[in-house]
């Protein structure tokens, strides 16, 4: 099944993986895109995902040392958000001393092609920071 363009109710579409027309303008699709934009638009989320892709599972302190410039509070919030969206797993390794390890879920690993394109310069984004 390809991505043959067609029209569906006046909206441009292509075939989904199972061959059904996929409406780019459907309300649920737009909501999913907005949720994704909010998730990856947060300053540190993609950096955390890239770190876990590169380094593999790691604890809070290790992530904090790998992600230069992130505060303890922001890291905790970001990890919580990524966990709530099913991007990372939070596994308790031990109660005493308390140890937690974070790893990517299958959904989190799906960000790899995007991150790799940025890493190797295939996808260049102009910074607006001055």
From TrEMBL:
<feature type="region of interest" description="Disordered">
    <location>
        <begin position="1"/>
        <end position="26"/>
    </location>
</feature>
<keyword id="KW-0614">Plasmid</keyword>
<dbReference type="Pfam" id="PF01638">
    <property type="entry name" value="HxlR"/>
</dbReference>
<keyword id="KW-0804">Transcription</keyword>
<protein>
    <submittedName>
        <fullName>Transcriptional regulator</fullName>
    </submittedName>
</protein>
<feature type="domain" description="HTH hxlR-type">
    <location>
        <begin position="31"/>
        <end position="130"/>
    </location>
</feature>
<keyword id="KW-0238">DNA-binding</keyword>
<dbReference type="GO" id="GO:0003677">
    <property type="term" value="F:DNA binding"/>
</dbReference>
<dbReference type="InterPro" id="IPR002577">
    <property type="entry name" value="HTH_HxlR"/>
</dbReference>
<dbReference type="InterPro" id="IPR036390">
    <property type="entry name" value="WH_DNA-bd_sf"/>
</dbReference>
<dbReference type="InterPro" id="IPR036388">
    <property type="entry name" value="WH-like_DNA-bd_sf"/>
</dbReference>
<keyword id="KW-0805">Transcription regulation</keyword>
